[in-house]
Amino acid sequence: MTRPNTYRSGPDDRGHFGIYGGRFVAETLMPLILEVERAYNEARNDPAFEAEMRGHLKQYVGRPNPLYYAERLTEKLGGARIYFKREELNHTGAHKINNCIGQILLARRMGKKRIIAETGAGQHGVATATVCALFDMPCVVYMGETDIARQQPNVFRMKLLGAEVRSVTSGAKTLKDAMNEALRDWVTNVADTYYLIGTAAGPHPYPTIVRDFQSVIGEEVWTQMMELEGRLPDSLVACVGGGSNAIGLFHPFLDEPTVRMVGVEAAGRGIDKGPLDHAASITGGRPGVLHGNRTYLLQDEDGQIIEGHSISAGLDYPGVGPEHAWLNDIGRIEYVSATDDETLEAFQLCARTEGIIPALESAHALAEVVKRAPTLPKDHLMVLCLSGRGDKDIFSVAKHLGVEL
Amino acid sequence: MSAQSTNGRAITEGRIARRFQALRAEGRAGLVTFITAGDPDAGTCQALLNGLPGAGADLIELGLPFTDPMADGPAIQASSLRALHAGASTKRTLELVRNFRRGDADTPIILMGYYNPIYSYGVDRFLADAVEAGVDGLIIVDLPPEEDEELCLPALKAGVNFIRLATPTTDDKRLPAVMANTSGFVYYVSIAGITGTASAASSDIGAAVARLKRHTDLPVAVGFGIKTAEQAASVARLADAAVVGSAIVTRIADSLDAAGKPKAGLVEDVLGFVAGLAQGVRAARG
């Protein structure tokens, strides 16, 4: 495959990153998807839209959040200098709010009256419910019955914020089924409803929209690292479920050849254990078409979608954003995986050494840092995207550690 | 460019075109029935499929089972999962068609489903096997005209009709793009929504069919929300065919025991229901 001049110019005008991406949706939705694309292209070229978004990110979300030097962890691992990008300090406790602020402004611009969303771990649901409260729009969040059971604190948060949480009992009752239900709602209420997608996947233009709104993460890291160290980082590490925090961190640096990037998928009980035991779409799946885009998917021989497993409800989606699929194939980004056990170790290590309880999603990325940092020289600058805080996960973790709360 | 000019042989020949010509000669609309391949199990499904023409189905849509049928309602999703649970696959779906063709050389069979199982099977190999099995057309819900080169164009080249959905949200500006590579017939989805839900008003359907006819010479079939013989008849007065899916599939679900096994008489019951629909359609313009 020939190397492009820039890795940042995608997708093409039909939403393709190489063979990935595209717009694989029912005809009922096509006119609306095209309308979203038109509206987004207009908004992106409107300085007033950008200014309004930046204002909310600063005053409401609390950006820029710190690029924090994790000194104790660095000493403990004895290699690379480790920095945390503190997305967990954002209002609502994760990076998801960056995208929700952008998309709700887009929805308002389009004159939409009602917001729907899907959520796995609940972080995107909470962020969506939050911006809907802020902008006074009715909000319906689809969530798998299984995820509702294991993420009760976030379910309660969404309800407090005024959102209606609809339990999804079809299929495997997790994130992919919540996405199916959200698409069904959208098909039915296409005139007045905006579907606020939470990850960098789905039909074009969503992967682009989410990436652009999340790129604030990488843009800030760029500026902050120049201030702190006077040069760009040497490596970036982020977890990848759908991949929105990762693409947000990576994208501004894609054309910088000295910056290595690593996406960490959920290996669950182990990729070698078989397709039902992990949620690593790139490292353990193959290309297919689901939820409006072509990308790497967990699927069986017949093209039926397999329900992955991860200790983290935010990572067990059987697909991944199409731009990640492309960046993998052209070799610009390295994709690896961390098991549930490695993640739990990293989770506890972070809590004890840095006084920060990370989300289980982010702890996957941390597990890779734990493996990688000791092998690197002491002047290597490594940035971990601490994409969310772990308060929501303490019940799952306690259960895995055999502690009764 | 008219719809015909792009379609070559696929539109003017083949079972679908012949069937609509015959219906026109009879002066009536057709009944298109949907069942999911392998639901509730391969043997029962084969008996249902083989019995449909005798019960009055003029064209048959056979669902390609998929785990995540995003544009379908609970009834069809459940039928897909039943079929998959019973071992359905793309290969076995083609076997059902091949077996059916041994006893019926005339009734058109259209596979309806989602793209991933076909993509996984391999487009070229799938088209070759589908033609060999006796498949006449494809309706692939998540392949809009924007993705025509994936399957639509190869299918037309292979002589397989690619039937496109048109919906209430497809405006006059977009219709030509939707019609460009459509062949066989146009499937008008009469409501914006998922399968098996509300039904549209006759006045809306009449207006929509008239609008489509301004853009195409192809027959127009109307579906979504048709549950009774009366509803099928009222659609048959307005369109070239009425499509019934969820109501038939629900009939199958209602004839299963607590363990999901077919009760005695399932096939007769479902075919009896189809016969009622067919009577409605046949009497519509009487």
From TrEMBL, chain A:
PANTHER family linked to this entry: TRYPTOPHAN SYNTHASE, TRYPTOPHAN SYNTHASE-RELATED
Listed EC numbers: 4.2.1.20
Single annotated GO MF: tryptophan synthase activity
Cofactor: pyridoxal 5'-phosphate
Tryptophan synthase beta chain-like PALP domain residues: 62-388
Function of the molecule: The beta subunit is responsible for the synthesis of L-tryptophan from indole and L-serine.
InterPro entries xrefs: Trp_synth_b_CS, Trp_synth_beta, Trp_synth_beta/beta-like, TrpB-like_PALP, TrpB-like_PALP_sf
Entry keyword Transport: no
Name used for this protein in its record: Tryptophan synthase beta chain
Known partners and oligomeric status: Tetramer of two alpha and two beta chains.
UniProt pathway: Amino-acid biosynthesis; L-tryptophan biosynthesis; L-tryptophan from chorismate: step 5/5
GO CC aspect terms: cytoplasm
Listed NCBIfam families: trpB (TIGR00263)
Catalytic activity entry: (1S,2R)-1-C-(indol-3-yl)glycerol 3-phosphate + L-serine = D-glyceraldehyde 3-phosphate + L-tryptophan + H2O
Highest taxon, organism lineage: Bacteria
Broad EC category: lyase
Family: Belongs to the TrpB family.
Keywords: Amino-acid biosynthesis, Aromatic amino acid biosynthesis, Lyase, Pyridoxal phosphate, Tryptophan biosynthesis
One Pfam match: PALP
Modified residues annotated as N6-(pyridoxal phosphate)lysine in this record: 96
